[in-house]
Design brief:
Bound molecules: phosphoenolpyruvate, manganese (II) ion
Family: Belongs to the class-II DAHP synthase family.
Order of helices and strands: HHEHEEEHHEHEEEHEHEHEEEHEH
Pfam family, one: DAHP_synth_2
InterPro entries: Aldolase_TIM (IPR013785), DAHP_synth_2 (IPR002480)
Strand content: 5-15%
Keywords: Amino-acid biosynthesis, Aromatic amino acid biosynthesis, Cadmium, Cobalt, Manganese, Transferase
Largest sheet: 8 strands, parallel, barrel
Radius of gyration: 22 Å
Binding site for Mn(2+): 71, 376, 418, 454
Distance between the termini: 57 Å
Helix content: 25-40%
Strand order of the largest sheet: 1-2-5-8-9-10-11-14
Number of strands: 14
Length: 475
Amino acid sequence: MAPDNAWLPSSWRSKPVAQDVKYPDTEKLSKVLNKISSLPPIVTPSEIERLRYQIGLVQRNEAFLLHAGDCAESFDACTHENISAKIGLILSFSLILIWGARLPVVRIGRIAGQYAKPRSSSYEKIGDREVLSFRGDNVNGLDPDDRTPDPERLLRAYFHSTTTLNYLRGLLTSGFASLHHPRDWSLTHVRSASLRREFETIVDGLSDALDFSHTIGVESTASYEKGGGHGTLGEVDFYTSHEGLMLNYEEALTREFPIPSSSSTRTNASKPAPTKAFYNTSAHFIWIGDRTRQLTGAHVEYFRGIRNPIGIKVGPSMADEELVRLLDIVNPDKEYGRVTLITRYGARKIEDHLAGHIFAVQQSGHPVAWICDPMHGNTLASSSGLKTRNFGTIIDELTSCLRIHAACDSRLGGVSLEFTGEFNEEGFSVTECLGGSMELSEDELGLRYQSFCDPRLNFEQSLDVAFLVSNYFKK
Ligand code: PEP
Ligand code: MN
């Protein structure tokens, strides 16, 4: 008989599925899933292992993690402009962190697969109609007449993910991402003169440092030598992620592979190291959302069996002992590089919960990377009804987070942000969050509000956050 904790990519099917999508055409769903199961992996085990190694460095305070991108991607936004703007902003942000904190930055985009959204209600009101809620482009359409879940959209999600990643890989290997040319990353649109000056000072300093390293021949000293890394100061690593919400899609892309021989993150030497593992090949990193993390639910069951590094959203409803039980389930051998906790309490609630969570995890001996998501606990409706976030509140949660970690003898290992580097044809950035150095006011929100999901920080507001974190860690 199979042991109680035996696991297969399909084990989740016997558990209650939070946020389940009911497809009217189940035969079509099976056909689509069979097709996806036969398509090639989107990412590879060696890339996944490399990220595990790098998250291990974050856990040992030797690197900082930046997790960022849109709340949700859409199929229509899969364009050259959007992808390069997003990468440009992630690179600019990480450059500011590297410069201030003098630490390597592990970059994980909410990109190439972030199409599904959890919803608090299955139905929503649009005008005087009640329709099924929009669940993301891989489930149904934003158009109220297109809300029936269509399995074909999962296949479209696969191809949009591969197209995005293909272009991303092209950008990363063709010089766009080179730290030798950071001015290519669209700073032309930043109108705040002081922000531009601050960034340009870093770029100048970095160019000098790179020239010097080149002259004396030590360019590769910043590479992550273990974990298969080959990046140098002039090249960058980049990883993809999404919320692992649609388990049938995740299952179809879960494949068993030999574990690449150089990988070891084990702490329990008494057990023989496994030689094969199930990898989720849809992204390097996937996370469990705050609405789907029930201990006996389908999502936790799925996540416990995959080898990828995973994120867990931790909100105010998580009890201290529940968090430890969750870690015991998804990381029983307490392996380094496996779990990232993404806390998202809200500026007013962080004081009540974070210290207790840190203490419980410290007592349990679980290695985790602590990441602050100052976005999801701080969403509000503006007077015009638009969903927004206040820059000041975002900063409040982030600064409280830094302070509480320091007071608890812990360390914040990174941030998780919803931001966009998009500009319109006239060079204006989106207007979705209030405040920041551009002092965006409530009546300006409607000017260029483009998110169809949560409000995102724009380019300038994001650089403001980068400087804040970078200055905090400045050595
Ligand atoms: C998200 O990250 O977009 C999200 C829905 O987060 P959470 O699960 O923390 O609410
Ligand atoms: Mn969101």
